[in-house]
Amino acid sequence: MKKTLPIVASLIVLCTSAIFGQGKFSGYMIGDYYYNVVRDSSFYHTAPSNSASTSSAPGTNAMQAFQFRRIYFAYDNDISEQFTSRFRLEADQVQETVDGTKSPVAASKISVFVKDAYLKWKNVFSGSDMIFGIQPTPAFEISEAAWGYRSLEKTIMDLRGIVSSRDQGISLKGKLTGDGMVNYWVMLANNSGNSPEADKYKRYYVHLQLKPFTNFQATVYADYKDVANVAAGNNGTWTTALFAGYSEPFLYNINVEAYLTSQGHAFTPTGGTLVSKNGMGISVFGSYSLIPELSAVLRYDYFDPNTNSATNAKGDVRNYVIAGLSWKVDKNVSVMPNLLYETYEAQVGHGAPDPSVTARLTMYYVFL
Q1: Which of 6, 66, 152, 286 is 20 to 30 A from 94 in CA distance terms?
Q2: Percent of the chain whose predicted confidence (pLDDT) is above 70
Q3: Measured at the alpha carbon of residue 316, what is the angle toward residues 312 and 317, in degrees to the nearest 5?
Q4: What is the CATH number of the domain that holds 325?
Q5: Rounded mean pLDDT, 39-66
Q6: What single DSSP character describes residue 331?
């Protein structure tokens, strides 16, 4: 049944397109050849339980493979002047849980799931649209567009599982000022990602975008993830984030994104009682056009999932660097040699694991 569902869904959208003739298909693929140049053989054994896994490609030292990290197939349909819809399937070689942790799929076929399935009511009231269904969350849509290289990596909050890229619910987004200088986006959703809801608790999102002058934009974001209380009290999570970016079209762009998280009664220091677990991350990224068809790309991330000074909260900091070139060989095809480099904080009583280094040749192409 699981294998036939995506096929049935694809047939449905194909039939819809054939009948109504108003829709548009789109699709792209992201694939790589990667080689793990350096891996610390002890990394997976010594990493503390509250740390995230490596961001670099999976596997041990000298692991090499061809892979598809993402395949998108979407159908957008204008139902009328006021209503539009989107249905999108995604296929990849990674299994993701709701909190964003990931593991390679071993001895298995590439999996397919519903990425988007929503209805948009345009101009439900002046300057605002309403969206219902499985849809993007407000957290990093703007910063991801500014980054522009999702083909190389997710933005930091998406990569580290801070906020899911999709959620099922209802949202309103639009202009707070007529000139579009201040825009808003609010959302109420399940906090279940692309999966069905399993409890009564919800996530509440608020997002503001500011465009005070040409080529510059900034965003302010916050959400609250409600969960069942623990014996000590509230266990919900607040997430706040800021983004700012400046671009000179067809020349360069520079951007910075930072976030903070705080989950109540979620961490027990050694010999202590439950306290809030706080985390943070900062990402600086940009690109420079060497010639119209060739750009240099650079990004640095700092990630600390638990900033508590307790001994059992140490050893979890990550520094992640992405460096590469993007060669646009065709308007719909890009070839990107790139290098992933990640370092790890020393753990109490141990030295720091050796850095992870992965070399990749990434292919990105639009096929529809």
Answers
A1: 286
A2: 85
A3: 135
A4: 2.40.160.10
A5: 66
A6: T
